[in-house]
Each structure stands twice: as C-alpha cells, then as structure tokens.
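Quick one, probably user error.
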C-alpha cells in the first residue's frame, strides 16, 4: 500500500496551481477554461486529492488549481480584449474611483473599476471587469474615493494592470452616496490638520509615513527616495501595520491575549478602510490577520505556506495584481523578512540572538537581495544605500508616525499641536537631510539595462540555498533508513 500523505501537501499543490494558472493567463493571455462546468470538475478533483492524499494525487491537485486560476482570469482577459477593439474610438465610461485621486496643478489621475462602457457602435451598457487609468485636466470638480464618475472621450490602449486609458476626457456626471466615503473624509480632514501646523515637504513625508499619502510628495523628493531605495516607507504596507499591531499589543496585552488580538484586528480593519484596498495593503492586512489568528489559537504556519495562501487569495480577488509592481515588491520584501532573514541569521549565529544592529543589517540585506531583480527590471537601477537608509530611518519611523498622528489629533488645542508639530518637523527634517545626502552619492547607485528578464536568474541560487537544507535532510533520512534496514538484516 502506498504511503498516505498529509492532506496539506495536496492543498498547497492546489494553491500553487491557482497562482501559476493566473500567472500564465495574465502574462501569455491564454484562456482555455471558460465554462463553469470545468470548475465543478476541478472541485471534485481537488476534494478527491484531499481525501486520498498520495504522491500520485499531487499533480491532480495542481491541475485543479490551474483550472481555477485560468477561469478566474477569463473575465479580465475578456475585458482587455473588448477594450482593445474600442481603442481610438469615442466611448462613454462609468466607473468607481478605486483609490484616492492624485490632484496637482489642475491635473488629476484616477483609477476606475466596476466599469460600464457605452460605445458609438453599440446602444447597450456593457459591464467590463478591470481597471482603467484616467487623467483629467482643466477645471476639476471635487472628487474622492468611491465616487462614481461618468466620462466621455477617446479610449487609449492598455498598459501594466490597466485595461485601458483616457486622457483629458469630458466629465458628464459625478455621483456620491449621501454619506460619501467616511474613512476617506477622515483621512483628508486629518491631512488638512497636518498641513495647518507643518509645512511641506515635511507634512507630505509625514502623511506618507502615516497613511501612505505619497501623491503630495515633491517630485524631487519622490525621485530621491526611489534612488535611495526607500519608496516602501511611504507606501502603507506591512511595516505600518507591524507598528500598529505592536502598539495594540503593548496597550491591550495587559488586559488579556484575546483583547490584544481583537484590538489588533480592529486596527488592521480600520487602517485598511482609511488607506483603501491597494495591492500592498491587502497583502499586508491578510498576512498580519492570519498571523494574529493562528498565533492566538496556538498553531504555527510556516512562512512559505502563509505567503502562498495569501498570494492565492489576493490574486483571486484581482488577477491583475500579478502585474502590479507594489504587489510584487510587497511579497518579495515579506519573503525576505520571513524566509531569507531567519536562515541567514541561523547560518551566521546558530541558535544565538544577534545584536540589534546585526539583526537590522541581516533584515535589510535579505529584503534588498530579494527585491533587487524586480527593481532592476522595472527601473534599471539598484542602490547599495538602502542598507544605510534602512538602519537610520526604520528605527525612527514609529516615532515619526506617532508624532505626525499626535499633531493631527491635537490640532483643536493650538498650543499643543504646535509643540508636536515642532518635534515632528525636526525628526522629518533629519530624514529628508539623510535621504538627500545619500541621493547625492551616485557612486553607490548602479545603472543597468531595464526590462531584461535575465536578471530574474538571480533567484536560482537563492532557491537552491533554500532547498539545499531540505534535500540534505531527505538524503540523511534515506541514509538512516538504509542503515537501520541493513542492521536489522545482519542482526537477524
């Protein structure tokens, strides 16, 4: 009788089948599965593999996942194909503003989803899955996240994760719910309070740290942050949630473990509502929530399995995330933090705990080495200065976020708001001085050709180093089994 495996082997084979199915579908735009009947077949096949978990059932679990991943991409690929046929024609588009509009100097950039398209060739409103990029100019009405806007203009071709573009369209109608997007209102109210006490660019950097509002950053500072490799600090993600969860545990951990977990989850939910469900924010919220819940019930979840499961969920929610740079960097940095860093630390220190400085260096190195191929492919440059910037900025980031928060909420008491604003400005000035100083050291920034896929071969030795201990343990186990059998035969 063949050895029965734990069902989790087949489960995660199915998880990776979904991920690979979506990757291949989005990159090669190849859709094979279009009927719901295939989902029934995939469901039956997957349940069978979970019940009769054997080595030979793993490929069937993988195939079931590939079917689901390919089917989930069908609506997005169909939307792209439909929009491609309308390029350069005049259309009427209605959609919801999915993220906070970036408004600057009579220009606004929007992302619209939940689309309805009306073209001159058709008299029907057709619903299309996907997101389009819109750039407005001239007199722009008051817009906020979740507004439904109707535009007319010439449709442009797709790029990146967007199934279409529109530049300088005419606004026909803007609809807003009676209450509007309450979390978005709170964020803008808070941002206005910050700007009353703190000047730019310090206020913009502080809001980038606290709530991920990077659209207000001056272009030169944004470019320098990118060159130094510190753009992740102004994108709300796992680092920000980690700081909030740590604060919740310190405040409510004295009451009970349940209170600590509950308020941490509520903080995550509130923070996501304020920031919006961006790819990096969705990933960070899911990872943090799963870790909290699993930790509370006393179970363990290996980092690779956790990241695989969260990747599958986020890609099922929106398959275009696989093409989103923020999603890619978010998972790469978490992989470096949860998988690479502990193994580097164990290789260098064994079972001992490294010093604070050594731990920061190992974490910075691990995340940087994983993110490097993605950054080189997209931007054509890599900076060695991110190690230095991480060592100085990341330890003081919680204090910058706290002081920015205290400045905003103490604004009704003017004298108290001014005190916090002074302290916040001093700290943020130091961050800006450091970033500008490092940005001038061009000898540590290496320019390389962009969009060259061969840079991803850097992952091969990393994967080998990760798999080597597993293979070594398997070889040792087989050798031990043979030795035991040999001894039993000779003893008999």
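Nope, works fine. Designed sequence:
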């Amino acid at each position: 009788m063949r050895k029965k495996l734990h069902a989790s082997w087949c489960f995660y084979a199915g998880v990776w089948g979904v991920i690979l199915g979506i990757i291949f579908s989005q990159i090669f735009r190849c859709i094979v599965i279009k009927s719901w009947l295939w989902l029934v077949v995939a469901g039956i096949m997957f349940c069978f593999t979970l019940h009769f978990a054997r080595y030979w059932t793993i490929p069937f679990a993988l195939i079931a996942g590939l079917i689901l991943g390919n089917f989930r991409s069908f609506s997005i690929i169909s939307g792209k194909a439909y929009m491609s046929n309308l390029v350069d024609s005049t259309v009427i588009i209605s959609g919801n503003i999915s993220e906070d509009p970036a408004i600057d100097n009579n220009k606004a950039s929007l992302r619209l989803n939940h689309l309805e398209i009306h073209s001159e060739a058709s008299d029907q409103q057709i619903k299309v899955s996907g997101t389009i990029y819109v750039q407005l100019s001239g007199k722009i009405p008051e817009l906020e996240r979740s507004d439904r806007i109707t535009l007319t203009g010439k449709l442009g071709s797709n790029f990146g994760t967007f199934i279409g573009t529109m530049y300088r369209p005419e606004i026909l109608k803007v609809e807003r719910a009676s209450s509007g997007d309450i979390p978005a209102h709170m964020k803008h109210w808070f941002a206005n309070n910050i700007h009353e006490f703190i000047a730019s660019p310090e206020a913009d950097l502080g809001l980038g740290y606290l709530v991920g509002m990077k659209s207000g950053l001056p272009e030169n500072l944004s470019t320098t942050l990118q060159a130094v490799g510190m753009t992740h600090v102004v994108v709300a993600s796992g680092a920000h949630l980690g700081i909030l969860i740590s604060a919740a545990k310190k405040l409510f951990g004295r009451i009970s473990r349940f209170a600590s977990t509950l308020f941490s989850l509520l903080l995550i939910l509130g923070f996501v509502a304020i920031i919006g469900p961006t790819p990096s924010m969705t990933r960070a919220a899911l990872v943090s929530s799963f870790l909290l819940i699993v930790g509370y019930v006393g179970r363990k979840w290996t980092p690779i399995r956790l990241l695989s499961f969260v990747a599958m969920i986020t890609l099922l929610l929106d398959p275009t995330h696989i093409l989103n740079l923020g999603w890619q960097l978010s998972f790469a940095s978490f992989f470096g933090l949860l998988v690479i860093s502990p193994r580097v630390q164990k290789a260098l220190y064994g079972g001992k705990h490294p010093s604070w400085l050594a731990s920061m260096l190992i974490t910075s190195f691990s995340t940087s080495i994983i993110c490097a191929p993605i950054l080189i492919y997209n931007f054509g440059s890599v900076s060695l200065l991110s190690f230095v910037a991480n060592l100085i900025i990341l330890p003081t980031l919680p204090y910058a976020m706290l002081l920015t928060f205290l400045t905003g909420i103490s604004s009704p008491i003017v004298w108290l708001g001014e005190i916090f604003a002074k302290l916040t400005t001093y700290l943020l000035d130091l961050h800006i001085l450091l970033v500008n100083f490092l940005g001038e050291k061009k000898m540590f920034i290496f320019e390389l050709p962009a969009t060259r896929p061969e840079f991803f071969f850097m992952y091969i030795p990393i994967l080998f180093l990760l798999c080597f201990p597993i293979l070594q343990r398997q070889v040792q186990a087989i050798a031990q089994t043979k030795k035991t059998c040999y001894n039993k035969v000779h003893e008999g």
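The mean pLDDT is 82.
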